[in-house]
Design goal:
The structure is a single chain. By secondary structure, this protein is mainly beta. The chain is about 15% helix and about 40% strand. A five-stranded antiparallel sheet has the order 3-6-5-4-7, with no helix packed on it. The chain is rod-shaped.
C-alpha cells in the first residue's frame, strides 16, 4: 500500500467520524406530542457525563391525563381500583371533573410524620381544559345511597348530662337508653316533637363527614334533632 492509499484511508476514516458527529447534532423526539418545556437553546453546548441532560419535556397525549393524589393512611383502605373520583382545580373553581382510580401504589410518602399513599386517577381531557402540574382537590366516592334518611353528625355526637336530660324530658319521661348496651353501629339521637324531647336508638350506615345515613330507627325526614342543649338558669 502506497502513501497515497494510506492517506485516502485516513481521510475516509476522518470523514466517517465527522459524519457520525454530525448525526449526533440532530435531536429526534421518540414520540409525537406537545413540547411542555425547552431547557436548551439553539447553539448552546450540551455536555453529557454520567447523566444525560434533559433537553425537552414532551407530553405524548394531553387528551388523556392522570391525577396523582396523596391519600392519608387512615383513608387508603377505602380507595380501590375502578372506583370513581371527582376533583376541582383552581383554574375552574365552578367545574367538577371526574375520573376513575387506576391503581393505589404501595410506596408511601412521609412528610412531617404524615404518611400518604399515591392513588392514580385516569381522566378524560378531550377539551384540553386540564394542564400538566395543576393542583387538584380530589374527592373519592367509596359508597352511595339513594333516598336515604340523613342525620347531622352533630346530633350523633350530642350526649347530654343527667341534669340536662331531666330538664329536657321532665320527671315522667321514659328512661334514656344506655349507651353501654348499644351495638357498634347504633347511636342515640334526641328529637324534639311537640315541644318534648325524646331519645331514639338508630342504626347508622355510611357518612360523608357532615351527615350520616340512618339504616334503621324511629326517625322521619323533617324531624327536628337536638345538637346542643343549654340548661336555663335558675329563676329564669
Amino acid at each position: 500500500m502506497g502513501t497515497a492509499d494510506a492517506a485516502m484511508l485516513q481521510g475516509r476514516a476522518a470523514l466517517d467520524q465527522a459524519q457520525l458527529n454530525l448525526s449526533y447534532t440532530e435531536i429526534v423526539s421518540p414520540i409525537d406530542g406537545i413540547v411542555i418545556s425547552r431547557n436548551i437553546d439553539v447553539g448552546q453546548t450540551v455536555a453529557a457525563s454520567f447523566q444525560a441532560p434533559t433537553l425537552f419535556t414532551i407530553a405524548q397525549d394531553l387528551t388523556k391525563m392522570q391525577v396523582d393524589t396523596n391519600v392519608a393512611e387512615g383513608d387508603v383502605g377505602n380507595v380501590r381500583e375502578g372506583m370513581t373520583a371527582s376533583f376541582t382545580v383552581d383554574a375552574y373553581p365552578t367545574r367538577t371533573f371526574h375520573g376513575v382510580v387506576r391503581q393505589v401504589r404501595d410506596n408511601a410518602t412521609t412528610l412531617q410524620n404524615v404518611v400518604t399513599y399515591d392513588a392514580v386517577i385516569d381522566v378524560d381531557n378531550r377539551d384540553l381544559a386540564l394542564r400538566p402540574t395543576m393542583t387538584a382537590n380530589v374527592t373519592f366516592v367509596y359508597a352511595s345511597r339513594d333516598d336515604a334518611v340523613r342525620i347531622p353528625n352533630a346530633a350523633l355526637r350530642f350526649r347530654p348530662e343527667a341534669t340536662t336530660i331531666s330538664a329536657m324530658t321532665g320527671p315522667n319521661a321514659a328512661p334514656t337508653p344506655s349507651r353501654e348496651k348499644l351495638a357498634a353501629d347504633q347511636r342515640i339521637v334526641w328529637t324534639l316533637r311537640a315541644g318534648t324531647a325524646a331519645a331514639h336508638v338508630v342504626r347508622i350506615g355510611i357518612s360523608d363527614g357532615m351527615t350520616t345515613e340512618m339504616v334503621d330507627g324511629d326517625l322521619r325526614p323533617g324531624d327536628v334533632v337536638v345538637t346542643e342543649a343549654i340548661p336555663a338558669a335558675k329563676g329564669s
